[in-house]
Amino acid sequence: MTRPDIEWSLLRPAIAVLLGACVVSAGLLAGSYYFAGQMQDFHERQHRKFLSASRRYVSVDDEEQLIRAYTPRFQTLERRGVIGAERRLAWAESLRSVGLGLKLPSLHYDIQPQQSYRPAYPVAPGAFQVYASKMLLSVGLLHEADLLRLLRELNEQAMGQFTVERCTLGRTGPDLTYDVAKANLNAQCELLWMTLRRPSSEEGHG
């Protein structure tokens, strides 16, 4: 029995179509892989952009919350004279007013030039610098409780914030006097009036 002859002339068009279909399929398959890779890269880039935008949004939201939380306190400190220029005139007026109210026999003061202040303990003031103006205070007292009242009322009434560096008390004579115009004791105190401001700020002294 002889093998039949293959009619290649009849099969040639079908083979050509089959080969073409294989080439097209291979091209589509390669294109799909390439397109999938491009889409994956695009997705990753967009995801990174989204994460970056989300972090920025969260950061801005946190900053807004901090601003809302601390702005009232900051404004209160500004109004009280703790933040900004030193208020020498206001300090002096408050001191004189408290002294008259307490009917102190004598009261003298001297405010030295303002200087930058570095406390003994670590402080992180951020963008602000702490400044201190030293006030030398000499007060005539009827009794020692007058000094406590003076410091307490000065703290309540004066613009700004001060700390008492030191105070010394001494008798003015051997005998007590009940004359409100004469002192039984003399107090020598050093007060530091503290203010906060940016080091580069050009603010006038009040």
- Give me the number of helical elements: 3
- Structurally, the number of domains stands at 2
Helix content: 40-55%
CATH topology type of the largest domain: Alpha-Beta Plaits
Question: What would the principal axes of the Cα set say about the shape?
Answer: rod-shaped
What distance lies between the first and last C-alpha atoms, to the nearest angstrom? 125 Å
Describe this structure as you would to a colleague.
By secondary structure, this protein is α+β, with helices and mostly antiparallel strands. It has 2 domains: 68 residues; 110 residues, Alpha-Beta Plaits (2-Layer Sandwich). Helix content is 49%, strand content 22%. Strands 1, 2, 3, 4 and 5 form a 5-stranded antiparallel beta sheet that branches. Helix 2 crosses helix 3.
Short recap of the structure:
By secondary structure, the chain is α+β, with helices and mostly antiparallel strands. The chain contains 3 helices and 5 strands; from the N terminus they run ααβββαββ. The chain has helices at 8-79, 88-102, 145-157, and strands at residues 106-111, 115-116, 129-141, 161-171, 185-197.
